[in-house]
Specification:
The chain is mainly beta. Helices cover about 0% and strands about 35% of the residues. The strands form four sheets. The protein has a three-stranded antiparallel beta sheet with strand order 3-4-5, with no helix packed on it. A hairpin with a 6-residue loop joins strand 3 and strand 4.
Amino acid sequence: MSRNTPQLGEPQQEMNEVSGSRGEANFVWRCKSCKREATATIQAPPAAYQQASPPTRQKIIEFDCRGLEFTEFKADGEWLAKGLESNTAFSGIDLQESEWFDYDEKLGEEVSIKDVKWEIRRA
């Protein structure tokens, strides 16, 4: 397959037919050069990160990939968080810069998400 980089957005909400198959996948991509079709299907839906001290690696989402391999994750879009002590809901969080800061009115303190690192691992 060619090195074209398709974008994957909101896959859990969209199902697409796989050519020559009865199956469906969240993401279907056809290479313009060789015409092969590649698919990715969500095996385990997105899960919330559970706060730990010290921070630990956690599986956020699991895909079954056929004919392709994800090489990079970009935190595009808006994320949600909930204050550990206050349960304050925060929305519209942008993690593209790997950090986020806000103020929790209930606690009267600054809250943050820092040093976010993403890793793609093969099963």
